[in-house]
Amino acid sequence: MIIKSIIGIVAFLVLGPFVGGLLAGLDRKLSAKMQRRVGPPVLQPFYDVGKLFQKEKQTPTRFQDFYVLLFVIFVIASGVLFFMGGDLLLVIFTLTIGAAFLIIAAYSSNSPYAEVGAERELLAMLAYEPMVLITVIGFYMYTGSFRVSDILAGDSMPFLPLLGIFFGWLFILTLKFRKSPFDLSMSHHAHQELVRGVTTEFVGRTMGWVEISHWYENVFLLGFVFLFFANGTALGWIIGIVVAILTYFFEVFIDNCFARMKWQFAFKSAWVIAVVLGMINLFVLYICF
Amino acid sequence: MSAAYVTKSPWVVHYDGSSCNGCDIEVLACLTPMYDVERFGIINCGNPKHADVFLVTGSVNEQNKGIVKQIYDQMPEPKVVVAVGICACSGGIFKDCYNVMGGVDQVIPVDAYVPGCAARPEAIIDAVVKGLGVLQAKRDAMVAAGDAPAEAPAEEAAPEAAEEAVTEEKKTPAVPPIFTMAEIKVNTMDHLKK
Lengths: 289, 194
Prior knowledge:
Chain A is mainly alpha-helical and 289 residues long. Helix content of chain A is 73%, strand content 0%.
């Protein structure tokens, strides 16, 4: 049990950024192919972060870098808690604290662009948070435990009983990955009215750390997708990993097919999805199990 | 950390001064699937704080000199300035206007010049790629001077030192103009013939 936890922690800490960075590189390559471009090398995200660490250190206020540091720590901690088989409630609360510190960091710079980004990030958080809670509650109602290790040890896949919740989670992943149509707080394709939203004032290695923690965060969020399929058997693990990767590329596809929506749409649609798919699924679980 | 990452992901910020917008549009043309600068890792990031390369099109006048200078000052070292188009190089046809100061090098140090009216996308890409050599040289100078990005107090000492190095470069340009006017003319004629 403890050995499994330690393996999970080490694997996440070491492999997390590699997998996350590689996924980001494949994302850019695939997006380029979809737009009939050649696109950057697959390792481009690593070059970008390497470059950011070679830049001069510059910051509008030293508090910003402190908050960013806390963001990095909490995001990594939530992933560590998840991959060591910890409590799902603790995992999502840690992730929420991490997201909150990113918003505080953006506010602390007093830059108008960062502030608009921070406000929109706050709205995005309000939009996706109910569905995150419903997902965790759904896992609890089906498996009888909040612990990831218990869910993994279960003999049946939670996917079918949690079908509605799975699609609800898929929907808010777009918000969490900050992909179009919900890239309202911070666009990967800049040169827009926001400049770079939340990350506008992050320079050099501060920005590098934010990128790295996004890689960690993406791997961890795909871990949730994996959890819908994983059970005690090897087949469940394989299906889980394959579906998690397919989910990521599905998000890339969505990203390339939509323009950015207004925050009102993001908010309303996320709550409608949470109520319709999430609550009905919870109700069915309540009746049947 | 000695690997040359600075040359592998040059992020660009673009500013258009007083011009006809011709070069402006050619810069944006570089981003299209036709030229696709992202294959060199070049991104138009629209944020001076994330940028490594400053592309200026159009000449500098009394109203926008402050803006050009501010964008330049907000960019963290190492950074490179590329003057795109003849207006950005020398003032071009606007040279004799009462309010035009001339090329971009009147306000900030320029590392690479791209003549042409309008500058062709190939020439702009070539200039950015050549500017990477300057970027690497500046990074090496940063490391040699000991103000690697980790040290915060470098902020006070760095700008003066960097400026000195840059002005020296201006006298003996590290990157000579990429195309002579004659070459540009030939290229353009070839293109028209096709």
